[in-house]
Design goal:
Structural class: alpha/beta
Pfam families: NPHP3_N (PF24883)
Radius of gyration: 24 Å
Strand content: 5-15%
Number of strands: 4
Protein name: Nephrocystin 3-like N-terminal domain-containing protein
Helix content: 55-70%
Organism: Podospora didyma
Shape: globular
Keywords: Repeat
InterPro entries: NPHP3-like_N (IPR056884), P-loop_NTPase (IPR027417)
CATH architecture of the largest domain: 3-Layer(aba) Sandwich
CATH topology of the largest domain: Rossmann fold
Length: about 325
């Protein structure tokens, strides 16, 4: 039997390569299909586009202000945004009252060419990947539109659709509920981050529907930790109402680091003590306490559980009620 000719060998290799390409395309389509859900972009599509020139001042153009003071008020946030887009890292938080136009602004930023221009300066030689998720406003949204899994699946879908080469064949059968772990692995992968960088826009973070296992703090921690672990390869622009929990968690400072360090030291290994104290501190912050208040309270807490129960019932509950009443006034 004569040996296979060079031309035949080339044809066989070509067929093998074609089959590999087809298999790869099937895998990619299957992964994207598992991540997608019907109303993934419903909220985004429902947001009206900003009127002409409404937010142009965000990029230092056409302030259209009547006084110099108005122009200065526009220039400061504009400069902060541009600096963050072009050279920043971590989380850029946009907060405002109900109906103040946060979602319209987020959609404007997400789509605007100047956003992409400034982010390209930050990306440098790396491939820039931009993805976004807009939480559904109020109750009409589906469970996925208001849960933690929903935005993570949506962000993963947008990223992998833009960069199908990031889809490993080993995750062909990963369950959708593991989106959190998959997202963390993606943004923390050193090989990925050497060639890509990511900017995520998440609107309406306060619309996240809390569960017993994951509250809003858990969401903030996931985003912040993912950004920090990426070594400067992930930027996050998020918006929310002026929610005390989100504001104090996103704007982390030395006071919070002191609490994280001091709480387990004071607990002397009693996990129930830690759980009770952390829960009470969160309630204080949710009801309007200053960021430094929990740290001061920590210094006055008794070590024994019986005494702690009494202290929480008398002191923490009274303080939380006072802060809540003050916030309502």
């Amino acid at each position: 039997m004569s040996s296979i000719s060079d031309a035949a060998k080339a044809q066989i290799c070509q067929l093998i390569n074609v089959q590999e390409d087809v298999l790869s395309a099937i895998v990619q389509a299957r992964i994207l299909e598992r991540l997608a859900f019907n109303d993934m972009h419903t909220r985004y599509d429902a947001i009206e586009d900003a009127c002409s020139k409404t937010f142009c001042w965000m990029f230092g153009n056409n302030y259209n202000s009547e006084t110099d003071d108005d122009e200065d008020e526009c220039r400061v946030p504009s400069q902060r945004l541009i600096k963050w887009l072009s050279s920043g890292q971590g989380i850029f938080h946009i907060s405002g009252k109900l109906g103040s136009g946060k979602s319209t602004l987020m959609k404007f930023l997400y789509e605007h060419r100047d956003t992409k221009f400034e982010l390209a300066r930050w990306a440098g030689e790396r491939a820039l990947v931009i993805a976004g998720f807009f939480f559904f406003f109020w109750k009409p949204g589906s469970a996925l539109q208001k849960s933690l899994i929903g935005p993570l699946r949506s962000l993963l879908y947008d990223v992998l659709r833009q960069c199908p080469e990031l889809i490993p064949t080993s995750v062909m059968d990963f369950p959708a509920k593991e989106a959190s772990k998959t997202f963390s692995r993606l943004v923390q992968n050193r090989d990925v981050c050497a060639n890509q960088c990511f900017c995520f826009f998440i609107d309406g973070l306060d619309e996240y529907e809390e569960t017993k296992q994951e509250d809003r703090k858990a969401v903030v921690d996931l985003l912040r930790n993912g950004s920090a672990a990426s070594l400067g390869n992930v930027e996050l622009c998020v918006s929310s109402r002026e929610d005390n929990v989100l504001l104090t968690d996103i704007q982390e400072g030395p006071g919070k680091r002191h609490i994280i360090r001091a709480t387990p030291e004071t607990a002397h290994g009693i996990f129930l003590w830690v759980a009770l104290v952390v829960k009470s501190m969160r309630e204080l912050l949710e009801n309007g306490a200053e960021p430094e208040t929990p740290g001061k309270m920590l210094e006055t807490l008794p070590d024994e559980l019986d005494s702690l129960f009494e202290h929480i019932l008398l002191e923490f509950s009274a303080l939380a009620s006072d802060y809540k009443a003050g916030a309502e006034d």
